[in-house]
Design brief:
With about 220 residues, the chain is α+β, with helices and mostly antiparallel strands. It has one domain. Helix content is about 40%, strand content about 15%. It contains eight helices and seven strands. The strands form two sheets. A four-stranded mixed beta sheet has the order 2-6-5-4. The N and C termini lie far apart (about 45 Å).
Length: about 220
């Protein structure tokens, strides 16, 4: 399969073990099957042009987990985010919710070669924070993940996965096009999310994190 990585500096093959431990799924090499999205991710600011790298990889014999497909779901995805990303949790309820979600739904992604799931880009990270703070329901969170059509990311976790990666080519990404495209996508997602949040919740049909915590107790 073909995958793409957007970067402001990487040109070629990545180094195993490099990267930030506070990324979505920890230290990994993050890619997508959507070249245009990779170009947007390559331009997080309008200061410099980015680089998009194209790779080929065979997933045969790799241990893969897709957090967006059953038996997993959005709660497992959030549990992994809470394990690695830094959340702004400023009250006892949200801190207790974080601990509960990790305890109940965390999946050890280090046991896999490849992790597939949503990318917690700016607006999407806000949706996750709102859920942990008990301001949106599980149902609305699931709907929110489709806003902006950000797609899924493919994270290569293991040395075995890195060894299967073949570099194909790279090209420069014009920040004047793809930074603007990235911002427009984020703005649309935020606007749709704000509209969705303003709708009156039907408490009998929607489940909040506090409901899950009470049910468990």
């Amino acid at each position: 399969m073909k995958i793409y990585h957007g970067s402001d500096k990487l040109n070629g093959l990545p180094t195993f073990g490099a990267g930030k431990a506070t990324n979505d799924y920890g230290i990994a090499f993050y890619c997508t099957e959507n070249k245009d999205l990779a170009k947007e991710w390559a331009c997080p600011t309008n200061e410099n042009n980015g680089i998009v790298n194209e790779y080929e990889i065979s997933l045969k014999d790799l241990k893969i987990i897709d957090l967006s497909k059953k038996p997993y779901g959005v709660l497992n995805w959030i549990a992994v985010l809470l394990k690695f990303r830094k959340f702004d949790l400023n009250n006892a309820v949200s801190i207790a919710a974080r601990d509960f979600i990790i305890a109940q739904y965390y999946v050890d992604v280090s046991l896999y070669d490849v992790v597939i799931g949503y990318r917690a880009d700016d607006s999407y990270f806000q949706y996750a924070q709102d859920f942990v703070k008990n301001t949106i329901s599980v149902e609305k969170l699931s709907l929110a993940m489709e806003l902006g059509h950000l797609g899924k990311q493919i994270a290569l976790i293991s040395q075995k996965a890195f060894d299967k990666l073949v570099f194909v080519s790279s090209e420069t990404v014009d920040k004047n096009i793809y930074y603007v495209s990235r911002m427009h996508r984020d703005i649309r997602a935020r606007e749709d999310y704000s509209k969705m949040k303003s709708e009156i919740d039907n408490a009998t049909n929607e489940t909040y994190i506090i409901d899950l915590m009470r049910k468990k107790n």
